[in-house]
Amino acid sequence: MKQITIALKNSLGDIDVMKQAIESFGQEADLPQELVHEVKFALEEVVSNTIGHGFEPGSEQSLTIRLRLGAGKLEIEVRDDGQPFNPLERPDPDLQQPFEERHIGGLGIFLLKHMLSDSLTYRREKGLNILTIEKSLTTRNSPTP
Q1: Using CA of residue 42, residue 45, residue 48, residue 52, what is the dihedral sign?
Q2: CATH 3.30.1280.10 is held by the domain 8-136
Q3: Which residues, in sequence order, are bridge partners of residue 78?
Q4: What are 98-113's pLDDT values in tens digits?
Q5: Are strands 119-125 and 73-80 parallel, antiparallel or unpaired?
Q6: Rounded Cα distance, 18 and 69, in Å
Q7: pLDDT category, 144, cuts 50, 70, 90?
Q8: What does the domain layout of the chain look like in residue ranges?
Q9: Which DSSP string corresponds to the chain?
Q10: What's the pTM value of the predicted model, to 2 decimals?
């Protein structure tokens, strides 16, 4: 089982550090480049939203991302000590509505649900938001129904 843990501060500058760590992990684990790109994109959305909306301005808080590869799946866990927020309770954006009329927000989680995850869960535990994403690697290239 391959695993990496990435510790970040609540700074948008740390997103580049995260993306580089994911890229390195993907190369070491021989993951498809498309999957590595999807993981970087999805986590950039999650982390930037957490930093922008989940923390008090000027506070020093942290996020931890763990990627674990094993048993035919990639598991990603994002932990943060920000305000309680379950992103799965947000309704999906109305993609039929013209872009300029849509409500701001929700697109990142929508993409995460529909692009990357086979399983997406949230829980609040010991003062932490914990978002867990699972992606099966065995069905990676099978057609979607």
Answers
A1: negative
A2: no
A3: 65, 131
A4: 756 655 555 667 777 7
A5: unpaired
A6: 17
A7: very low
A8: 8-136
A9: -EEEEEEEES-TTHHHHHHHHHHHHHHHTT--HHHHHHHHHHHHHHHHHIIIIIS-TT---EEEEEEEEETTEEEEEEEE-SS---GGGSPPP-TTS-GGGSPSS-HHHHHIIIII-SEEEEEEETTEEEEEEEEESTTTTSPP-
A10: 0.85
